[in-house]
Design brief:
By secondary structure, this protein is mostly helical. The chain has one domain (2-148). Helices cover 87% and strands 0% of the residues. The protein has five helices and no strands. Helix 4 packs antiparallel against helix 5 (118-148). It is elongated, with a radius of gyration of 17 Å. Bound molecules: protoporphyrin IX containing FE (HEM).
Length: 153
């Protein structure tokens, strides 16, 4: 029962985070780049991030707490399969990359948009974009690796 709840919350966290990055990177970004001038595009993306990032923080708390709980149920890191070690390692890298995005270029993007300094805001977005691509790739890879060697059904 608690195992099912933990797995469900773990999956919901992953779906929200990875699905949100997929939509932003693969659909929203290219259309915004093709159709909007920098002031509108940067304002739109700063607004989109301000809505999405609180959900990423919530997802990280859920993924980490339920993931560690599930590892505990499986007898700790000494007893789990290699796919869980890979998931944990790559998941922590994703979280560190997200923390960097949030505390460095995202703060610069917000400040640039507030001050209407489009050059600074554009520079910040140019840092955020490839990092989100890396995190999206890691997230998709983790889902495949997790499913490959799943223990719980
Ligand atoms: C960072 C620390 C993490 C830990 C400690 C952790 C731990 C675990 C554990 C113990 C399971 C159950 C294993 C099983 O059923 O074999 C699991 C399942 C899963 N995890 Fe993670 N995880 C972490 C991060 C992530 C991340 C970042 C993602 C996705 C972006 C993710 C996606 C999944 C998925 C999709 C499953 C379900 C696999 C299945 O049963 O089909 N995990 N995780």
């Amino acid at each position: 029962m608690l195992t099912g709840l933990a797995l469900t919350l773990h999956l919901l966290g992953a779906v929200i985070w990875v699905g949100g990055m997929f939509f932003a990177h693969m659909a929203l970004r290219p259309v915004a780049a093709a159709t909007l001038e920098p002031p509108q595009r940067l304002t739109l993306l700063a607004g989109v991030f301000s809505r999405f990032f609180p959900w990423v923080w919530a997802s990280i708390v859920l993924i980490l707490s339920t993931g560690l709980y599930l590892v505990g149920l499986l007898g700790g890191f000494g007893g789990v399969a290699v796919n869980i070690h890979i998931m944990t390692g790559l998941g922590i890298i994703m979280m560190l990359i997200y923390c960097f995005i949030y505390f460095v270029p995202y703060q610069r993007l917000k400040a640039g948009v507030n001050e209407q300094n489009w050059k600074a805001a554009g520079g910040a977005l140019a840092v955020i974009r490839p990092l989100i691509a890396v995190n999206l790739s890691l997230g998709l890879a983790i889902v495949a690796i997790a499913r490959w060697g799943a223990v719980f059904g």
